[in-house]
Amino acid sequence: MEVRRNILLNPGPATTTDTVKLAQVAPDICPREKEFAGLMAGLREDLVRVVHGDPAKYTAVLFCGSGTLCMDVCLNSLLPQGKRALIVHNGAYSARAADICRYYGLPHVELKLPYDCPADLGAVERALRENPDVALVYATHNETGAGLLNPIRELGALAHACGAVFVTDTTSTYAMRPIDVEADNIDFCMASAQKGLMAMTGLSFVIGRRDIIEASKDYPRRSYYANLFRQYDCFERTGEMEFTPPVQTVYAAIQAMKEYWAEGEQAKWARHTRVMEAIRAGLDGLGFRETVRREWQAGLVAAVRNPDDPNWDFQRVHDYCYERGFTIYPGKVGTAGTFRLCALGAIDAPDIQAFFEVFRQALDGCGVAVPVRYDA
Ligand SMILES: *Cc1c(COP(=O)(O)O)cnc(C)c1O
Question: Which run of H or E residues covers position 112?
Answer without folding.
Answer: strand 108-112
